[in-house]
User: Fold this.
Amino acid sequence: ASPKAGRSRDDQTEDVELTNNNNMGYVGTIIVGNPGQEMTVVFDTGSANLWVPGKMGARSSRAFFDPAASSTYSSSGQTFQIHYGQGAVEGYFCHDDVRIGALELRNFTFAEVTNTSALRNYARLGFDGVLGLGFRSISTGGVPTVMQQLVKSGQLEEPVFGFFLGDDAPGELVFGGVAAEHYTGDFHFVDLVSATYWAIPLESVKLGKSMQLSATATAIVDSGSSLLVGPDREVRALASMMGAMKVSGYYVAKCADDGDLPRLTFTIGGRGYVLEAEDLVIQRISGMCVLGIQGIPEGRGPSMWILGAVFMRKYY
Assistant:
């Protein structure tokens, strides 16, 4: 079996349709085991492991992987634990076949998660597991990544993948190529800071014509994050200049129309990537705008900006 949303552009690319969860997350389906068991996953450039929940790790009505039902499953006994911004999950590494549409990895090493209790709001997040698209250097346990093994297997036309995240509409992930109908112009290539996350040099963050910040030198492009996330000190300064206040963990500003809010520009590789008010606002309530930007408190990891779905919806 194959995900109902998957289709091939040619023999060596594969399209995965991404379901849009209220512009706050995008998920697609994969198949695990034989006979195949369908799992809904976040395709996450901010991590590098694949995990799916076992029966003990599933919550609410979420699907779970049943290893006893797969004729190709084998256990490893090695423990697994991974931490995200929303918390952690743990379980055990195992081996089985994994399919993404027509793409297949046999005897692939992934994790069966048995404990999701520390992953905040997991029961309401709309996915079963996570498929990491970061580099092996950040893979828990040092196991090969899905993308690494797809490239090694020769199933892809090119060693690339491309994300399109729809605005209040479905998205699309292409393995082995890009979707030309979802972008215009030429690609702008930027060297990575390191082959860990998709981390790139950040030259500055500019708000309208009034403020420019250049203290943080790195940004990561993260399909697993909903918002723009930056160092708390910088985010508070930007929010203050936008007249925003914090309400229930989100920054909220008055905005009778989009002209009330200045544009935010990230300069990367000498080019400015502009986010207008319509890009930054994630919800409007009675003349107030909820902004898609949050701060990372000092001391919680390295200083960087995370360019999540708010950024990726505008730029392919």
Observations:
- The radius of gyration is 20 Å.
